[in-house]
Amino acid sequence: MNESDEIILSTDKGSIMRCAVKEIRVAGRNTQGVRIKKLSGTEKVVSVIKIEDNIQ
């Protein structure tokens, strides 16, 4: 992946989010990760895909 790539994240409640990789901050090994989307209640991420060709 490089900074011009984008991802699409979807949840079991039907929520979809498109995000540029360059907007995701880098975290060190001793962290608990990076939050990309705040989930509500029992909502869970079911898929994350990389968008191969970015059409402008």
Layout: helices, strands, pairs:
Elements: E1 6-11, E2 16-20, E3 45-51
Antiparallel strand pairs: 1-2, 1-3
Shape: flat
- Low-pLDDT segments, ≥5 res: none
Distance between the termini: 18 Å
Tell me what portion of residues adopts beta-strand conformation. 25-35%
- Average of the residue pLDDT scores: 84
Structural class: mainly beta
Please provide the ordered H/E string of secondary-structure elements. Answer: EEE
Counting DSSP E segments of at least 2 residues, the number of strands comes to 3
Number of helices: 0
Query: Order of strands side by side in the largest beta sheet?
Result: 2-1-3
| Cα Rg | 13 Å
Number of domains: 1
The major beta sheet can be summarized as: 3 strands, antiparallel
Helix content: under 10%
